[in-house]
Structures are given as C-alpha cells and as structure tokens.
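Task: fold both queries, return tokens.
Query 1:
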Amino acid sequence: MAAACDLTGLRAWVTGGTAGVGLAIARTLLAAGAQVVISGRDAERGRLALQHLASERAELVLGDASDPVQARAMVAELQSRQARLDIVVASGGAADEKPGLFHEVADAHFEQVYRHQFLNRVHPVRAALPLLRERGGSVLFIGTDAGRHATVGEALHGGLGAATIMLTKTLAREFARWDIRVNGLALTLTGGTEAFEAAMARGDWLTDLYSKAVARFPQGRPPQADEVAQTALFLVSPQSSQVSGQTISVNGGLSFGGW
C-alpha cells in the first residue's frame, strides 16, 4: 500500500499523533514519503513518539487541539518552519474517557468528552484551513463506529461520533471549492495501542466488556492500529482522489450498514 500511495513531497499534521492510532498513522505516512508533524499535549510523550518515529522528516508541536487559541498557535509554529501543509489527520482523545451508562456519567465528563472527541477535531481543521487552501489537500477525521451503531455505555461518544460523520459530509461539500477532500474513519476497539492493552489488563468491568467485544470479531481479533493506518493512508493519498465526504468503518466486519 505504501508504495502505491506515494506521499513524497507532501506535509501532514497528525493531531493526537504522539500515541495510539495517531502515532500508527504518523508512522505509516512517514513510510509513504511524507513529512509529518505530530502534536499532543504531553511533552514527554511527544519526545518518546519522535524517538519511536526516528525520522528526520518527523516534527513535533505541542498544544491542546481542543482549544482554538492553542490550535492556531500550533499551526503558526508549523508554518514558521515550513509554509506548506497538505494533509490534516484529526485524531486523539483523553485516556480516561471510558464507556459508562448515560445516567451514571458525571456532569464534568460530558464536557470533557465533547472537548476531546469533537472540538479537538474541529479546531485544528479550522486553524489549518488557510494553509490547506493554498494548494488543496486532504482532511481525515478519526471517529467511532458508535456513531453508526447504538452501543451501550457510549451514548455520548456515539452522539459525537455521529456529529463527526455529518461534519465530514458537510465540510466535504464546503471545501470542494478549494480542492480539499474530507473523509473519516469510524473505529471500534483497536489493538496494538496502549489504551487497549491497559483496558484488557485492568481485570474489572471494562476488561470484561472489551473481552466480550473481542470475542465477537469474525476474525477472532480486533483491527490493529497499523491496519487502521493503512486505510488512513489510502484516504489521504492521491489514490483516493475521487473519494470525499465518506466515512469508512474499520471494524473487522463486527457490524455492517449504518450511514
């Protein structure tokens, strides 16, 4: 896939790129020849991510993507290094945002999930839009399959996931005038990430929930982060030049249909 989806000469910004699926996507884009800027809120995690990527084409900017002021500051910093941006991958989230029944969710948790599952997708794209408009490019939102399929314990995450799917469609129409494509990935449990491994090792209700979900995958395992990243690579590459406004579920065949 990497050979066919050549990104040589292109520059990508992956928010939430210091861990998990975001880091896997950054690694895959680098392998395809892109220059990649990763961002996150934690300086130490960012340093370790750069060590992991081990490439002169990898950069780091720090900031909270859910804050519009910090999102603009990150774009200003990456622009000061090089006035080019072709791809924005909006991902990431807070590690403690676990599933919970609607009536048991604390008030503060609602706002936290909204910030770290939705606003941290919106603000980076708004901030980067002036750069993307100069040459055209691609935006990719990383969302959740709970936005397509009702999932117990994920009423809030699912609602915001559905909002991200509609955001993807609407921005695809708006941004077409500037030759910017907008697509999304809807994910389920994803293996090969720290968050997944930590959940499976807790030995509590969350481990039980995840274990039951894993048992339902037709292939006997959930998608791995690197497999998700290959789909991301296709959607931001010229190979998908006629694909826009689409959200692809990478769920190992766990469910079908949706919108």
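Query 1 returned. Query 2:
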Amino acid sequence: MDIDLADPAFFAEQDFVAYFRRLREESPLHWNPDGKEPGFWSLTRYDDCARVQKDPVTFSSEVTNTLGQHRWTGDHGAGRMLTHTDGRRHTELRGIVGRAFTPRAISALEPYLRSVVQDTFEQALEQRQVDFVETMAMLPVASIAALLGVPRADWLMVLKLTTAAFGAADRELGMSRDARVAAAAAHTQLLLYCQDLMEDRRRQPREDIATRLVQAQEDGRLTEEEAMLFFDLLLLGGNETTRHGAVGALLALIAHPEQWATLRREPALLDSAVQEVLRHVSPSRHVLRSVTTDIELYGQTIRAGEQIVIWHSSANRDAAAFDRPDEFRLDRDPNPHLGLGSGTHYCVGASLATLELRLTLEALSAMVGSARVLEPPVPLASTVINGFKQAMVELTPS
C-alpha cells in the first residue's frame, strides 16, 4: 500500500474506490508517510469518520482542514475561517450567515433557481452536444451570488474569476507557472470585488450576506480580512459541491438507466435521489483534523499534533453502513451519508446544495429524454474535489 494519498494524480489516474475498499478491509487506520506533503493518518471506515467529525475537542479543525501545499507553508485561514475554527468561535462565525441558509430562507429562492435550471437545460438541449461541466457552471454561482448580494450583471464575471482562481487545484493546471500566476491574479480580483461590494453595502445595506459581513465588521465580530475570507469561502464552497455533484448525477443516471426510468415514473423519489447522489458521488473527498491529545486507535498511538484525514469518499461506500454500497439506488433508505459532513461542521449551505441538486434531477427527469457519453469524462486531479474537468455528453429532449 505504497500509494501517496496526497498526490492529486492518484485520483485522476487510478481506481480510488477499489483502493479505499482495500484500506477499509486491511488498514482502516493507515499511515501515509511524507511524500507530496507531511505524513498523516487516514480513516476510511464510516463509523470512525463519523465519530471523529463529532469530536472537535480531540480532533481540531483550527490548524487546517484539507490536504494541500498549505500544510508545508501554513494555512492563512487557521483559526479565522468558519471551516478552520471550533467551539465558541465557530458558533459565532456560523451565526453571522446562518439565517441566510435556513431551509425557509432557501425555499424562497426556489422559483428563481427553477427558472435558472430550466434556462440552463433549454440551452443545453438546443445545443445537444455539450460539456456538462460547463453546462452546470452557472447554477451554483448564480445561487450563491444571489445570497451574497452580487448583482446579476456581475455573475458571469464572478464565474470566470472563480473558475480561474480555484481551477489550479487540478494537477495539470497547477503544473503551469502561467496558470498559477493567472489563478493568483483572478483570486486578487475576486477579493477586490468583495471589498468593493462590502463598501457599497456599508453605504446602502440590503438583505444579503455582504451586508451581514459588513455588520459583523462594525460590531467587532470580524476584521475586514476575515470578512473577505468568508466571502471567498462561500463562493468556493457554493460552486464546487453542487457543480460536481450535478455532473456526477448525470453520469450515474446514464450508467444506471433503470434508475433514471424509476425517477421519471416516481417523482416522489427526488429527495431521496438527492441524498443518494451526495453519497454515491461524494463531491467533497475528505476533511482533515489535527489531534489535540495522544489517543489509541486500532492498537496504534496517534500523537498530539499529528493529523488525520477523514475520507468521505470511502466512508460513503462502507458496507458496514450501507447495503450494497457500490450500487446507485435512488430509493436508498436509510442513507446516513457524510456527503455534507457531520457534527458541528455539517455544511452550512446544505439546504442550498440539496435544493440545487433536486432541481437539477427534476429537470433531468422531465426535460431530458435520453443522454449518452460522447467520450470518456476527464477526472479532476484533486485530493479535495471528486469531479471532472470535462464531461462531453449528448442530450436528447423528452
């Protein structure tokens, strides 16, 4: 088991599902030695992953929360971002934006988001042959942009900057110096845009997240830099999970036409279908925690200060937690997946992500008569996001 799980290329070039199955069976607590990054422990069984995420005292998020080069250089978000805090500070940060993501607040967006999805699919069906990764790019950006308070005229610009800024997480893009420079420049533009937007809200408050971030600065809960980090986090998180979840959903339905036929016959399955997509696809591969005190697990000692990775991609395929876990079953019940995390770090945007995926599945079952893959999808070389750089498909209307 000499594979380096910190190497993004592994997830693009090899069968990680089979490898994680082997780890669950043979090495459920696995030491990954220094390689692309400093060494770390991996947990791959469902019960272990769920337990660790529910114990922020022993397993802290405050140093960093994912694999990446920042583990060598230090994570600028440590102890300052929602994803990098625990306890009272985490609760305080979550409270700043929490009301914007309640099920009631998100349901108010449903008519608008349904129109975005319908327009998206009408355009795709008119073209017939599309890269579904690009097709689904606008929905999550439009959704989170609306909540943040980004004017509609700026959505396309924000999409382009977000894609340019965070696309370098893919190994192929990250290898190019020009690509890294372009990504840094796009990220700078995004932060400057955020700064301008918050200045506008300081003068003219509205009912949006940008205004909440300004108010949090004014009452001392956030510094200006922390507010911009928050904006950054919401843009990235709001974009990646839903976009790649939607692409994974289509590919799974193409691979399992009987499930697609069932969904068309039984629209009442939409909600459980969303949960199965989140489990089966697992758009977020992992989270990382730092151990705060020596612990014993599987007969091994994990020392305080060492780091442990919780692999959602593996936990969601654990036969001890899910019946026939490698099957894609839209009526799966129960389905206690970790696709949106668990514990205090359960995804703050869960209601928005599930609504977006439900509307996407609804459109696929109502508007698309059939679909086929035109060429093998190109997976992302990423340890963080389970998704694709390209997925060329042909869509036929109902």
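Both queries returned. Flag for query 2: The chain has one domain: 8-397.
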